[in-house]
């Protein structure tokens, strides 16, 4: 019988399946961080249970960590407590921890792939919604709640019902200044922040196949922002080349065996999806969000949609979102001054993102009215950026290169955007208060963020690229 990629991986991991009940699904890799693991470890302690497969569990500290000097004591009490608990719990339960100061420390969704832990065909979970990122390798990867974290600790399995499948095809070539972040913001704007609810999404088509692994991660990362349970992309030569030689990737005979299996991981030509959507890459412009959910996005030259054009029952919440943002409906954002630019988060903090930004700002300087934070996704990304001299470029541009962590993606650490201020952010959520109380977030690509950094206002990056080339 023909199968989708999700079905192939799912079926290979079902321990037990019974009509009318969720499947018992085997989990290959369990990633953990300091926010959603403490209660789960407590649960084990209360039951007198060990972590069943500690070698398949990997921990890092990311959400609560300082990004100016991660070796200084954490000022905020809850943050410090959570990071300390992670250290203590990992030691007690025999789990490998890439904690503060470790050369592998970083955002959990950045370190898995870069260490060769994230592999095609795996099932991977983490108590974190953006676990969907790892799907870029052709893995079934999804976020779970704290009680499920405990379930996986205790059994290396999870009770899960098989998801519905959706295929999203993007074909054709992207225009100048348009990248993976624009693709995903475009899709979410088209189908809404609830458009993928209940589905596991497979991204396909020539525009997706042409993307690097890092760009594919940006796409899969934001699957959750349209309500999907996860997103994935069939592995191909780009995937295999990325993985080969990484710290924990299979090597020698193991590599050959793994590769032979990975090559079987694609949706069969006649496999049936529950839903199929198709988009044309040429229709996608640099994107920006104007509202308070990731579906409220538009091409940067467009006008914010009119309140009158919204469905009756949504008019009020739509207007509320625009009020929060301080924007008028049916207006353009071009030229609107911004206060902060944040380049980071598990969506866009990998080395290619930093290279793209550095390449763009070389010989330019940030505008006086903006504060620019560049927060690498991991210690390895930070080190690589320094090896390549990107730190010097950022410094000359007046950008601050900080240490790895979730940082201003969410106000759980010291990096907060002040109330009322506008931040062009490469992260994935623009919810009210997400980056700090009453902070206003505009989601965009690293290039669009960099353009705002140098002009101090919302800018169509294509205009600046024209100038450079012309
Ligand atoms: C803190 C964590 C549970 C949360 C998530 O699940 O996504 C965070 O990473 C986020 O991005 O909002
Ligand atoms: S970077 Fe942001 S989205 Fe990613 S895990 Fe951290 S808080 Fe969540």
Q: Which structural class fits the helix and strand makeup?
A: alpha/beta
Number of strands: 19
Q: Output mean pLDDT.
A: 97
- CATH superfamily heading of the largest domain: Aconitase, domain 3
How big a fraction of the residues is strand?
Answer: 15-25%
Helix content: 25-40%
CATH architecture of the largest domain: 2-Layer Sandwich
**Count of DSSP helices?**
16
Could you say which overall geometry the principal axes of the C-alpha atoms support? Answer: globular
Question: Assembly state here?
Answer: single chain
Q: CATH topology of the largest domain, which one?
A: Aconitase, domain 3
CATH class of the largest domain: Alpha Beta
Number of structurally distinct domains:
2
Q: Give the spatial strand order of the biggest sheet.
A: 5-4-3-6-7
How far apart, in Å, are the first and last alpha carbons? 55 Å
Largest sheet: 5 strands, parallel
Radius of gyration: 21 Å
Low-confidence stretches: none
Bound ligands: 3-isopropylmalic acid, iron/sulfur cluster
Enzyme class: lyase
Domain Aconitase/3-isopropylmalate dehydratase large subunit alpha/beta/alpha: 7-456
Pfam families: Aconitase
Function: Catalyzes the isomerization between 2-isopropylmalate and 3-isopropylmalate, via the formation of 2-isopropylmaleate.
Notes on the structure:
It comes from Pedobacter ginsenosidimutans. Catalyzes the isomerization between 2-isopropylmalate and 3-isopropylmalate, via the formation of 2-isopropylmaleate. Pathway: Amino-acid biosynthesis; L-leucine biosynthesis; L-leucine from 3-methyl-2-oxobutanoate: step 2/4. Keywords: 4Fe-4S, Amino-acid biosynthesis, Branched-chain amino acid biosynthesis, Iron, Iron-sulfur, Isomerase, Leucine biosynthesis, Lyase, Metal-binding. There is one protein chain. This protein has 470 residues and is α/β, with parallel strands linked by helices. It has two domains: 272 residues, 2-Layer Sandwich (Aconitase, domain 3), CATH 3.30.499; 180 residues, Aconitase, domain 3. Strands 5-4-3-6-7 form a five-stranded parallel sheet, covered by helices on one side. Strand 4, helix 3 and strand 5 form a beta-alpha-beta unit. Helix 2 packs across helix 5, helix 6 packs parallel to helix 8 and helix 12 crosses helix 14. The N and C termini lie far apart (55 Å). The mean pLDDT is 97. The structure holds 3-isopropylmalic acid (IPM) and iron/sulfur cluster. The site of iron/sulfur cluster has 13 residues, from loops. Iron/sulfur cluster binds next to loops.
């Amino acid at each position: 019988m023909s199968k989708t990629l999700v079905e192939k991986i799912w079926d290979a991991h079902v321990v037990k399946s019974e009509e009318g009940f969720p499947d018992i699904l085997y989990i290959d890799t369990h990633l953990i961080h300091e926010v959603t693991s403490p209660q789960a470890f407590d649960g084990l302690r209360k039951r007198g249970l060990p972590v069943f497969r500690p070698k398949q569990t990997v921990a890092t500290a990311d959400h609560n960590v300082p990004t100016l000097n991660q070796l200084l004591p954490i000022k905020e009490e809850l943050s410090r407590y959570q990071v300390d608990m992670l250290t203590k719990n990992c030691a007690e339960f025999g789990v490998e921890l890439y904690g503060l100061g470790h050369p592998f420390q970083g955002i959990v969704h950045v370190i898995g792939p870069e260490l060769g832990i994230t592999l095609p065909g795996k099932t991977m979970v983490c108590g974190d919604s953006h676990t969907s990122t790892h799907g870029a390798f052709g893995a079934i990867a999804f976020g779970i709640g704290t009680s499920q974290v405990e379930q996986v600790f205790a059994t290396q399995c999870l009770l899960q019902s098989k998801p519905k499948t959706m295929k999203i095809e993007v074909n054709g070539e992207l225009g100048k200044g348009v990248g993976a972040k624009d693709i995903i913001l475009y899709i979410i704007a088209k189908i809404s922040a609830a458009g993928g609810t209940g589905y596991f999404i497979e991204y396909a088509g020539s525009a997706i196949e042409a993307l690097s692994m890092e760009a594919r991660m940006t796409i899969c990362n934001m699957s959750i922002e349209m309500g999907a349970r996860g997103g994935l992309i069939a592995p191909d030569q780009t995937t295999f080349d990325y993985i080969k030689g990484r710290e924990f990737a299979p090597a020698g005979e193991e590599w050959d065996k793994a590769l032979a299996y990975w090559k079987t991981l694609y949706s069969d030509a006649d496999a049936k999806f529950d839903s199929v959507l198709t988009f044309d890459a040429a229709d996608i412009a640099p994107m920006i969000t104007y509202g308070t959910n990731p579906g409220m996005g538009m091409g940067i030259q467009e006008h914010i949609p009119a309140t009158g054009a919204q469905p009756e029952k949504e008019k009020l919440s739509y207007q509320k979102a625009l009020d929060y943002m301080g924007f008028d409906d049916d207006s353009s954002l071009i030229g609107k001054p911004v206060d902060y630019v944040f380049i980071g988060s598990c969506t866009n903090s990998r080395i290619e993102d930093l290279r793209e930004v550095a390449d763009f700002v070389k010989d330019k300087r940030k505008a006086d009215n903006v504060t620019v934070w560049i927060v690498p996704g991991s210690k390895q990304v930070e080190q690589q950026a320094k090896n390549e001299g990107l730190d010097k470029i950022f410094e000359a541009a007046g950008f601050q290169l900080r240490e790895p962590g979730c940082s201003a993606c969410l106000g759980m650490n010291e990096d907060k955007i002040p109330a009322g201020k506008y931040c062009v952010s490469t992260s994935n959520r623009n919810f009210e208060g997400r980056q700090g109380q009453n902070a206003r977030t505009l989601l965009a690509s690293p290039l669009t963020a960099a353009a705002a950094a140098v002009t101090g206002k919302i800018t169509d990056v294509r205009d600046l690229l024209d100038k450079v080339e012309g």
